[in-house]
Please model this.
Amino acid sequence: MKDLTSGKPEIVLWKFSIPMFVSVIFQQLYNIADSVIAGKFAGEDALAAVGASYPITMIFMAIAIGSNIGSSVVISTLFGAKQYHKMKTAISTTLLSAAVLSVLLTIGGLFGTSGLMKMIRTPENIFSDGALYLRIYIGGFLFLFLYNVCTGVFTSLGDSKTPLYFLIGSSIGNIVLDYIFVADFKWGVAGVAWATFLAQGVACVLALITLLKRIQKIQTKEKREWFSGKMLIKIGKIAVPSILQQSFISVGNIFIQRLINGFGSSVIAGYSAAIKLNTFAITSFTTLSNGLSSFTAQNLGAEKPERVKKGFRAGVQMAFLVAIPFVVLFVLFPDTMLSLFLKEESQQAKEAGQEFIKIISPFYFVISVKLMADGVLRGAGAMKQFMIATFLDLALRVILAFILATPYGTRGIWLSWPIGWAIAAIISYVFYKKGCWDLKKK
Model:
């Protein structure tokens, strides 16, 4: 565990964030491996089937990530304030609540799979494979949820290395199982889903055991509660807006996916490949933003707001350094990047994917500023401002996608991303500069 409230802010944040960034590289590598192996060994329709169900899987991921964020902000604040008995109560309350919620969502998701696939106008030729992938994915949601919560607790305590070790093992295991199930056993889309299910399950169990052992070693004078309704409400004040924010983004992506599905399976496959590349970049920035949230929460808990400004500047610098290689690769070598997923004969799919990635990638510098400002707002609990900027981004992207799709086709849909990002980035930065996160200004 690491105290983020002492030492030079820039150096502390860099050391804390680098393992988190490396972990997201491994996480995205196995997400990309799913699509690469599906596209290369099971064909374009298999890649399209995985891609068509992707926005729905992201709703479940959004709930897990939102819960991660809500608990980590509260736990970081209590850790920074050295209120360890309350911190332990927050951890156990989060784990118990996450377990119950994940079971309820799994049951609902399994019964609603076909309806969700029909809602987004999934083409008939990929419907059954897409629904099968989604059912297996939802079946493993308990593992996904608890793993994300454990990761959030580790980072709240200043430990960004332990999640990295679990993620490296999980990623390697997932890629190996992907290849065995799809290339050797010929299980197709089901093989991709089962590989993720098993790898995530093992990582979850190991992370949970490690976390419980580590928390047990923390000695406190006061006895902690295993579950606290008051603590759950406190966590919920951060978690629920974060879940809503993440969920609305996912719901917005479902509307966009529904729009894209009307252009046929080749465009779906191209978009599926390109969105995986885009997700790699965006998740990298988001991970740095989450690190900045933990840094902000700990320092505000220790009543050191002056360190937060330095942390924000360091966060933007890191995000820009991360954005440069993504922009260079996606703008100059889009065909090479998409060839990882698609066969040579998938020319229409490649053209759609190249156009998407070349339009949006130059704006990674813009979205990274927004995400760093959001990291400070979220870490300080300024959820009203955080949600305004996020929902504006989402609303603009969805509305513009439908407006521009009629005269410009898929290109109009792609253009909605940078416009939404730019306006939302301005709003988030204005909120940050006004200091609504600063307790002294409040």
Summary: The radius of gyration is 21 Å. The mean pLDDT is 85. Residues 44-80 form the longest helix (37 residues). The CA atoms of residues 389 and 427 lie 6 Å apart.
